[in-house]
Prior knowledge:
B: mainly alpha, MetI-like fold, flat
Amino acid sequence: MVQTITAVFQRKPLTLQQQERIDFYLAITPWLIGFILFTGGPIVASLVFAFTDWTGLTSVRWVGFLNFKQLLFEDDLFWIAIWNTFYYAFGAVTFGTFGALFVAILLNQDLPGTTIFRVIYYMPSIASGVAISILWIWLLNPQVGLINFALSKVGIEGPLWLASQNWSKAALILKSTWGIGANMIIILAGLQGVPISLYEAARIDGANKWSEFRHVTLPMLSPVLFFVIVISIINAFQILTDIIVMTTRDGTGGGPGTSSFMIVYYIYQAAFQYLKMGYASALAWILFAMILILTLVQLWASKRWVYYEGGER
Amino acid sequence: MSTLTSDTPVTTQIRRTTPWLQRKSTRTKINAAIVYMLLLPGAIVFLTPLVWMLSTALKLPNQIYVYPPQWIPDPPQWTNFAEGWAAYLPFNLFLRNSLIITLNNVVGNLFSCCLAAYGFARLRAPGKNFLFAMVLGTMLLPQEVTIIPQYVLFTKLIQAIEPFWPSGGVLWLLNISWVPLTIPAWFGWPFFIFLLRQFFMSIPHDLDEAARIDGASSWRILVQIILPLAKPAMATVVIFSFIGNWNNFLIPLIYIRSTKEQVLAVGLNMFRGSYGNIDMHYMMAVSLIVLLPVLVVFFFGQRLFVQGIALSGIKG
Lengths: 313, 316
């Protein structure tokens, strides 16, 4: 490296290797600048903010661990947000993984027409965004919404969904289940990567469909399932657009009451509505720590159920 | 990488058995019937919300709150689309703004991510592995951690450059309140860098080694050898980037103050907040228009999507 730099300054002809090094650093320069300005720098700044009571307007005042102490021991809203987020994430990830696995297995049967089914099941996960959140407000309308109409057809009186303290999280989980397509595609790719020779061997050994699934498909698929679960949990923890669009009444989201008040919405509200930048930064770091711990726990637990064909990594 | 479409050639890796029609055993047919019986109702359930959206968008106001719901509006009000679009909010402006910002970001993402991915995939230099670990690390970092300092950075930056910022004429293209939305796109996006890098890695080294020995520069190799071979991966990035930017809600919500400068996603939420309960038919019509480009892109690019997801998801 030093030789390369001196060569550049002394205008000596560069060797191919030196030229390649220079080109590498030129090629990644845009990313590197962006990384320093928009990610690396902000990480450090956010860590500093978390220990101040800065509002974005006043001067910065160092408060030590006060934000964290308040959040963990004095702020009921924080624990409500944590509970709601775990509740939602548990529902969304459970349905999102098992639903996607179920559909992927059906689509993997290699029957005519499965391409069309694949497109239909996959489409909703792409069509995300505000338009879809609005569509779901309408679908979940307690009086004339389609979901309660369908429930009434089978003799069930539908709940108030987004207008009910008890059902608002269930409504959000239901909406998330509509978007299982991305997980389904990943699992499907995993299923198609299972070597057919293993199924043949199992069949020769007299395995039935269930034991084929239990002892061939599931172990071979476990790394993919692990990936899907980790990513789904990270995504579920960061639910925000749905909260802002679907649960906001009179400028406050997370309702009714605090029944759908989630952690990222709390960060958004603290930072951009109440301008409590320091407090919101502390919240963001707690969220990050939670995601990190959850991922590490899963990584540890995965040793018990995830099978890597190439041996332990 | 395994492709998932049924018309691809049979390989030993992929689970492909004899064509379905040739399997004549009753058991297979019963099995198929069960699978269809499970797939079909599910598919109907998955499609219904969008059908319902269209149905509501075509109704007269007095048909909307009718119970039990009417599926086929009579007569269908096709004018709802134009009326809803023009009713309360300047959706033409929102559309223009969304188009400009999305186009800029797609081009910016493609440029910066191809460059970085090329570096990480093909060029040898000390520190490369460490830097690539940084790319992967930022993929896992929740944006909430960086969003507040970024907000501070951009508001200060805008305050500082505003006196010198050109305005008027065609320069609305460079609207100052869009700086936080349009600038970062030119500085790489970890997921796209990763996706492109994975694809670039799969291109045989012989080609660029030969070109290099013949005296081609790194940039010429990138433009004339790597990029032409990486069109599927680039198309995947274009599609993901288009949909991601088109749907982006939080960033414009935080930064853009003036209604005239707002984008479609936030405009749609403004519509909901102010008039949504009264005019559900307009609400659904406008939502459908906003959704349409995404659906079109999806249908044309769904194979690439599948490849992109499989590429980034499995080969990690």
